[in-house]
Amino acid sequence: MNQRERTLLFLIGGAVGLYVLYQGVNLFFISPITDSKKRIVELREENDRLENIVRQRRRLVRTWLDAASKTFSYDRSIASNQFGKSLKEVAQRHGFEAAFFTPTSGTKIGNKTNITTVAYRIVAEGPFDKARAFVNELYRTPYLAQITKLGASPIQGKGRMRDELKLELTIETPVLPEIDKKKMPDAALAVTMMEAIKAGEAPPPPAREALPSEVLQAILAKRNIFKTYLPPPENVVLIDNQDLKMVALKVTYFWEGQPEEPIVETVAGKSQKPVKGLGDAVEVMGSYVDGKAFGPERLDFNAKKDWTYVVPSHTPPPPPVYVDLAVENSTKEPVDVDVTVTGDDGKTKTLPTMRIKPGRTDVDEFKAQRVAVTATYPSGKKLPPRSFAPGAGKQTYLVPVESAEVRVEAPIAVNDPPPDATMSVSGLVTYQGTQELIATGGTTRKVIPAGAPGAVDTGTLLAVHPRGGVVKMPSGNYYLYPLGRKFTDRVKLEARSDGDLAAAIDTWLASPEAQSDGAEAVQSASAAPPPTPMTPTGKGLGRKP
Length: 545
Fold this sequence. Notes:
By secondary structure, the chain is of the alpha+beta class. The chain has seven helices and 27 strands. It is elongated, with a radius of gyration of 53 Å.
């Protein structure tokens, strides 16, 4: 064996030895480790599978317990009776007391389960809104229920409402089987809704999780596809504006409760305007020129066909500037009448004497601050003058029948108590039949009501006049306490009794003394409210205005 052969043999023997060594290491060291790792992976997969089964079982138990708590009973007859009772209560809450409830055969849920259902067929008739609310509550019951059939059709008949419909539906609720305690002890503990809820407790929330949204409910309530279309009728509301100035109005017609496009109108003062629209009701609102709002007011054309909306008077009338004068001659002979007009500039003008025949005579209309009238009988006797201030309507100067010769007794001189020099008349108030004089002096303020005895310089306040308060003293004398003046400026009135006060005040108003106090404040005793004095009991004295 030469050297080359020995080298080759050595190489071959070394290779075989290395292979044998590899196989031995692999057999005794590497293969057990690899097999162990593979076994670990297999065991982990098996463990995950078993844990998943346990989790599924627990989840199944929870699902079963939850489902059982939303059913009536494990007994079909009990479940059917309770189910029907609940459905009838829901129907009655929505006005379907006359609905028909018929038990029907249920179904089986799934091929591999023993879960069955009990069912009811319901037939009801009523308005669309009530039917919608009824079905909506059936979807919100605290127990599991499913509407498997639903039909709705409009009712078209004489005497029936347009929104009435006939509702037919079939609704089912499941009946769960009882679980064997040996197979699933946890699930066997499930209790039904009747067992879980004690008497008097509030019912649980709806069993159904996916409920219709409020938006969809609103759309369904607004769009009744079962109602027969009926065009809105044309109606007219007459707007009667009693105010002196123009008013702005918003008139909105309604058809079946839904508003139409508002109509904006303006109506001139003291005028009428018809406003047409489509609908069975109308709502009117608006505002005056000063921004004050009126309305809204709803008018129903089903109750009344012809409607007139009256806009109340709001703007105060302008102050009167004219004296529309008439003379009523109650005598049988003509009388002479003298008229003195005090213009806006304060200047007076006496008109030519007029001869007035018996009866009523319209004299003229004067734009003036004051008109003074006096009459002279054919005998030459003159009547006391009477003043008229601008006012609404015609004002009449009455010439009574000339009385026989009357002996006028001279007044008995009586000294009245002196006036209180510290007090002044600062205000006169008339409201709701009550009259008051407000007197002030320094820090003192008195509110003296008419009829209060001894309240004004020991005298009694009979009434208030636009120019002052009328006071009767214990002596029987009458005084006028002018507004804005001190008590010391009181004016004695030439009156012998309460009935003479109106004429006495007119006489004083026509005097230069009264006119010098300010022509703008002069008003007639008969034209200014209240024109006649008041007794302490509140009754008027003297002639009527």
